[in-house]
Predict the structure.
Amino acid sequence: MIAIGADHGGYKLKEEIKRYLDEKEIKYIDCGAYSEERTDYPIYAKKVAEEIQAKRADSGILVCRSGYGMAVAANKFKGIRAASIYDEESAKFAKADDNINVITLGGDYVTTNTAICIIRNWIGTEFKGGKYQERIEMIDEIEKENMK
């Protein structure tokens, strides 16, 4: 299950991503926004992160104009490893090496086709584990120390 959210700047791309997920019969939770009316991206980063924390979703996709604000906001939640992704190769490495569980996309910079390729590669890549898992565990310790 994927939680997906966007602000007004990412709304159109989110809707295209939903069409792709529907075609591939990939289940998702739409956390909003539900129109292009101006809104604030932290609202949707929070909703997606909370779906993952509550274990109603395994991962998330967030879209705003740049993808950066969404990544910053999502990374404020324990257990969330969000990264802004702009191409297929970075999607593979994000998952394989860092087990990124939330990708953020920039609606102003990523075409629908590129977004779909990113998502396909991110979903289709396995986390390597091993020394990479050890690094994730180090990040978890940092969270415990710094996120009260």
Observations:
- The chain has one domain: 2-146.
